[in-house]
Predict the 3D structure of the following.
Amino acid sequence: MNILFLTVAFPESSEDRNIYTDLMEEIKEKGHDVYIVTSRERKYKKPTELINQKGLKVLRIKTGNLQKVSNVEKGISTLLIERQFIRGIKRHLRDIKFDLIIYSTPPVTFEKVIKYVKKRDHSQSYLLLKDIFPQNAVDIGILKKNSLIYKYFRKKEIELYKVSNFIGCMSQANVDYIIQNNDFIDAKKLEICPNSIKPIKILESEKLREQIRFKYGIPEDKTVFVYGGNLGKPQGIDFLIEVLKKNRERKDACFLIAGSGTEYFKIEDCISKFNITNVKLYSYLPKEDYDKLIQASDVGMLFLDHRFTIPNFPSRMLTHMEFSMPIIAATDINTDVGKVIEEGKFGLWSQSGDIKAFNEHLDVLCSNREELRKMGKNARVYLEDNYTASKSCEIILNHFK
């Protein structure tokens, strides 16, 4: 088949990977021709172009800025993206007839692109639902429920669901939420298609681990907790800051935070104001260095804002699982990520805001190395059993045999 994949999250560098690069490479390896249409933000100062990237044909379309910008700029760029994608497909992919269109949220503004290609090529379509917008923005106070902008994006969300032949949700809680809040959707077109990667083999080396810790000044005699990724409102950074403040006198733990986002300076200010010495904060690390930081750590941290009513399921935990690391999570009560972590016996969960429970989990992970290693092994096994790109590929393509 000729398969078209629409996303705003396909890395510029062929050396970088995420859940979408792994999935598209897996589909290509099944013998399909894969074309990716993705955004190239204006800040990179590069033109629209069609390139070959590891055997994938990638059309990078120049758009407005979407990441790490103000909500106003991001909103305007999101509104324009449909027209830009359609124009790019007409100009660069006009001679390709697509059998299947796969696309991910965010954004929800792909509906007209999908309708255009479906009408032109009589294609089928599959939505990878990674973001339930605009409700998630309402939950954390970015949008008001009855505002005009909410109503606009809610209409786009509904149209996106309607134009999709199938919808792959990240977990059972996602499936249940969509059914309960969108009674126009036929439940038969909903299924679980989780976040997934192509796990690489990680060579365990105590000597390498010691070298990495020495390079970054990480204590060898402490349990190292690492958080990597976005530092924004959805991640519940206020609770992360509370964790750092309450544990600043702790002698058996070290906290590594690597990421960027709107709340980064809050963390930086907290560390400075309270003179916290057991935290290391990195604003940006190349992927190779970030992976080394993960490899030198003991436990992966996962945070979500306590206000969420929609069930998020963060993909960043897959990296920790890939490195055989247990997870300590603090989230809202509507996601089932904590249930999965506990049932899989690869980590500990508490409700975001419950500092007493979180600190009790820190005590467990700092005092019992054997249990920590056991959870880490369980994490890798659970990843290989449930969250591989090959399984996601099979779930999607089974509909189109």
